[in-house]
UniProtKB/TrEMBL annotation:
Keywords: Membrane, Transmembrane, Transmembrane helix
Protein name according to UniProt: Uncharacterized protein
TM helices/strands, residue ranges: 12-33, 45-66, 78-103
Protein origin, superkingdom: Bacteria
Length: 181
């Protein structure tokens, strides 16, 4: 049996393609829920992500140091290892609290709240801004919430906003709202 020396590269490229496909799917799916999930005001979940990312980056940097290059290039190589590991880990884990809230929020709450309209609405990232923003203070989240709306959804004679949401200990997922006269 003849050994194909390029088989290793084919397997590596296939594995790399699968990892990048899953990573891209993770970002697209987590970005699609970011407009309807809100964290509580004083949430410390981001601190856990930064701590985990720092510890992982330190661990991989120490492994690199133990295997590492010569003394003359080690400080810059170690810095690059720490920086890129920390950055990629943060980018990957940053939407985890929102996804966790989206999946585990189970207590339904219905609120009637006073609202304000503002033009243009909140940012939608690279797609620009929403045409109209709806803002109100949420008692459960203990913070001001901004929702995105289209101009044809707005009822100018409405006095209150009826908000339906699912809540857990870390935040809420607002899944429906409409205007009340």
């Amino acid at each position: 049996m003849k050994f194909n020396r390029y088989q290793h590269y084919k397997t590596y490229n296939l594995l790399l393609f699968i990892v990048i496909a899953f990573w891209s799917a993770w970002f697209v799916s987590s970005n699609s829920i970011s407009n309807e999930v809100f964290l509580k005001k004083n949430s410390w979940l981001w601190l856990y992500i930064l701590t985990f990312s720092s510890l992982l980056a330190l661990g991989l940097t120490s492994l690199h140091f133990l295997r590492g290059p010569g003394f003359t290039e080690s400080s810059m190589a170690l810095f690059k290892t720490f920086f890129w590991t920390f950055l990629l880990c943060n980018l990957t884990l940053w939407p985890v609290p929102q996804v966790w809230i989206y999946l585990t929020a189970s207590r339904e709450i219905n609120d009637r709240v006073e609202f304000t309209l503002f033009y243009p609405g909140p940012s939608k990232g690279k797609a620009g801004n929403c045409p109209v923003g709806i803002g109100y203070y949420d008692r459960d989240l203990q913070r001001y919430v901004e929702l995105c709306a289209e101009k044809d959804q707005i009822d100018r004679k409405a006095r209150k906003l009826y908000v339906q949401k699912c809540v857990n200990d870390y935040g809420a997922r607002i899944w429906r709202y409409h205007f009340i006269r």
